[in-house]
Write a structure and sequence with these properties.
Layout: H1 3-29, E1 31-34, H2 40-61, H3 71-75, H4 83-101, H5 112-134, H6 141-163, E2 172-175
Antiparallel strand pairs: 1-2
Organism: Acrasis kona
Protein name: 4 TM domain-containing transmembrane protein
Keywords: Coiled coil, Membrane, Transmembrane, Transmembrane helix
Length: about 180
């Protein structure tokens, strides 16, 4: 091989390497990650806030004097004012709110067990509110509907996230090739 052929071979090799590097850079730039939209974080926050507000009203409503807000009447408690029971339900709502806030503290992908726990706790709270409204008639229907809607939205998005979202199917990467 002559000197020019060797130089040409080296130059062709450099050109091929440069083309490969350019194509690799183009592929990296053109990557699109297709994922489902995730609303569960905002729903968990809204449900947790509603439960926390509910807990605040129930717990601290027992500490106010008789001339202030009568929360037993507001919630429609059939038995009238029962402060011990009211504080217990307030604490239950605080715990449920904390459980709903917990998955928000972790990065995506690490919170699956916490999403399950939040879903289970929300089912328990929903069943409790449903029984109180329909069987025991201890809560006003408006309170049950308001809490029930938030809890059902939370359950829907949580289970959608677990079964169809990040955990149900793998992430799809689409690479656009340009000429």
């Amino acid at each position: 091989m002559s000197k020019t052929q060797v130089q040409k071979a080296k130059l062709d090799k450099k050109i091929d390497n440069t083309k490969a590097n350019i194509n690799e850079a183009i592929n990296i730039v053109n990557k699109e990650i297709k994922e489902t939209k995730r609303y569960y974080r905002s729903i968990l926050f809204a449900t947790g806030s509603l439960l926390a507000l509910n807990g605040l009203l129930l717990y601290f409503g027992t500490l106010s004097g008789s001339g202030r807000i009568d929360l037993a009447r507001f919630y429609g408690f059939r038995e009238g004012k029962n402060e011990h029971l009211q504080r217990s339900v307030g604490i239950m709502c605080f715990i449920a709110a904390i459980v709903n806030y917990f998955p928000l503290l972790f990065k995506s992908g690490e919170e699956k067990p916490l999403l399950w726990l939040a879903g289970i706790v929300d089912v328990a709270v929903l069943v409790h509110y449903s029984l109180e409204t329909t069987v025991f008639k201890g809560l006003r229907l408006e309170i049950m509907i308001c809490m029930g809607l938030f809890l059902l939205m939370n359950l829907g998005w949580t289970f959608k996230e677990v079964f169809q979202g990040r955990y149900g199917k793998k992430e799809v990467i689409v690479v656009k090739k340009t000429a």
